[in-house]
């Protein structure tokens, strides 16, 4: 019990810190939690979204080479408007270690996802620090784009057909997979060994959807953030946590009494950067930036810094798929 109280206290402290903004701009207030939808049914799939694993990954092809860093942007474009507002507003996590989390020493929010948006800012402004980091929860990822509270979301968001009907995605920039974290002394080897156990997944996430779909015998509980699930786990209110392997690796690093079950991932989670569905020109621009990062080594350098220590050597960057009609 003592170890749980100590670890939970640490996680609660981290959770309290996540409502602040970046070190480059004044603190950004967490947007209000969106109202619950009147229906849980996903929007109808469109003609370019067939759930076949390929169509949903197709984004908008870049128009051409990205302009020189900080150079002249097309007048009237979304990128020109962002440059005029003076910073790129990015919805991110501040409690997902190695993806987007606050450095307890410097106070800066950093990680693999943060590197993605900083490179977009570099392409627009010539300065990767021209970013306002807006801390959001998983359920807020789509509403903040629809309401134009932010320009882009980089919060380990899986590309799927239902989401394509509400927002637009960049090409895939990382391929994750869903696994399960439990107490180190657990004898379970797969989720199938845990019937009736409470398993936490962030609200509004594909992790929660997959848990309900593939393992209906477990009892799902939710939290708005990854740290929220970690707190429930450390308080003994959740037997385990399910989520992307990238996220669970960070949580296991924070809790020496936790381990990730050895079973292979039971889902594929292709990450994309989210943008407003009406800003196709911005999606094309971001895809050009991602192409450059994958080609010139910046993508690998970011992976090696944040993910390689826990997930192993860098794989080849995901190949971009294009062909979505504008």
Notes on the structure:
It is a single chain. The protein has 326 residues and is an alpha/beta fold. Helices cover 33% and strands 18% of the residues. The longest helix is centred in the C-terminal third of the chain and has 17 residues. It starts with a helix and ends with a strand.
Low-confidence stretches: 1-23, 26-47
Which architecture of the largest domain per CATH?
A: 3-Layer(aba) Sandwich
Strand percent estimate: 15-25%
Order of helices and strands: HEHEEEEHEHEHEEEHEHEHEEEHHHE
Structurally, the number of domains stands at 2
CATH homologous superfamily placement of the largest domain: Periplasmic binding protein-like II
Range of helix content: 25-40%
Mean pLDDT across all amino acids: 87
Distance between the termini: 56 Å
Biggest sheet, open or closed, and with what strands and sense?
A: 6 strands, mixed
Number of helices: 11
- CATH class placement of the largest domain: Alpha Beta
Task: Walk me through the topology.
Layout: H1 2-17, E1 58-59, H2 78-85, E2 88-92, E3 95-96, E4 100-102, E5 109-110, H3 112-125, E6 131-135, H4 141-146, E7 152-154, H5 161-164, E8 168-169, E9 174-183, E10 198-202, H6 206-214, E11 219-223, H7 226-234, E12 240-244, H8 245-254, E13 258-260, E14 268-271, E15 274-275, H9 280-296, H10 298-306, H11 308-311, E16 321-322
Parallel strand pairs: 1-16, 2-6, 2-7, 10-11, 10-12
Antiparallel strand pairs: 3-4, 4-5, 8-15, 9-12, 9-13, 9-14
Helix pairs in contact: 1-7, 3-9
């Amino acid at each position: 019990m003592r170890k749980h109280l100590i670890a939970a206290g640490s996680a609660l402290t981290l959770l309290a810190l996540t409502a602040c903004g970046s070190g480059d701009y004044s603190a950004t207030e967490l947007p209000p939690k969106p109202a619950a939808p009147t229906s849980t049914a996903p929007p109808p799939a469109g003609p370019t979204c067939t759930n076949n694993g390929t169509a949903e990954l197709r984004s908008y092809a870049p128009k051409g080479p990205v302009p020189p860093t900080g150079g002249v942007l097309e007048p009237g474009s979304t990128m020109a408007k962002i440059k005029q507002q003076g910073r790129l507003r990015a919805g991110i996590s501040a409690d997902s270690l190695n993806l987007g989390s606050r450095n307890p020493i410097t106070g800066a929010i950093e990680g693999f996802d943060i590197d993605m948006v900083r490179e977009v800012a570099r392409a627009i402004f010539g300065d990767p620090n021209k970013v306002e980091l807006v801390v959001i929860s998983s359920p807020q990822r789509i509403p903040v784009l629809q309401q134009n509270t932010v320009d882009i979301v980089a919060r380990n968001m899986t590309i799927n057909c239902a989401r394509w009907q509400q927002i637009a995605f960049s090409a895939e920039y990382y391929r994750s997979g869903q696994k399960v974290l439990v107490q180190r002394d657990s004898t379970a080897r797969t989720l199938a060994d845990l019937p009736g156990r409470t398993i936490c997944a962030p609200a509004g996430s594909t992790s929660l959807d997959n848990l309900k779909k593939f393992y209906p015998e477990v009892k799902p509980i939710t939290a708005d953030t990854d740290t929220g699930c970690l707190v429930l786990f450390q308080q003994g209110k959740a037997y385990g946590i399910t989520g992307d392997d990238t996220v669970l690796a960070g949580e296991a690093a924070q809790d020496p009494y936790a381990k990730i079950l050895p079973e292979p991932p039971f889902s594929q989670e292709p990450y994309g950067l989210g943008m407003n569905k009406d800003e196709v020109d911005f999606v094309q621009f971001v895809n050009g930036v991602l192409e450059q990062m994958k080609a010139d080594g910046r993508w690998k350098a970011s992976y090696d810094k944040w993910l390689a220590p826990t997930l192993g050597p860098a794989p080849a960057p995901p190949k971009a798929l294009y062909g979505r009609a504008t």
